[in-house]
Amino acid sequence: MKRYAEIRRRSQTKSYLTGYGLSLLLTLAAYWSAMARPARGWLLLLLLAALAVVQLAVQLRFFLHLGKKSSPQWNALVFSFMAIVVFILVAGSLWIMKNLNYNLMNMPPSATEKTIIKDEGISR
Length: 124
Known about the structure:
Layout: H1 2-36, H2 42-62, H3 72-105, H4 109-120
Helix pairs in contact: 1-2
């Protein structure tokens, strides 16, 4: 029994180190792509998105151990929930930033100052 635990621990350590190495390599590849710009425009965005998807797959496999368990339904449920949460966070953040940008761009600077002074209760 002790021998099995030792083999399992080594296997997990090897899995974590492999995942760490791949994640580090993919992060450096994305950083290099953004800094050196081997491509321009949409091609650069597609390259970075592809690297992000590959890194997501590496992290799901090596750190969250999705795909190793015998219950694929549970893995699909966890992955679906994670995708929904990420979508809500990203879409909500973009929506808020767009709304703020629209409201600030359509308001003259003097009106912005007046609104801030009124909201904060500052009297001159």
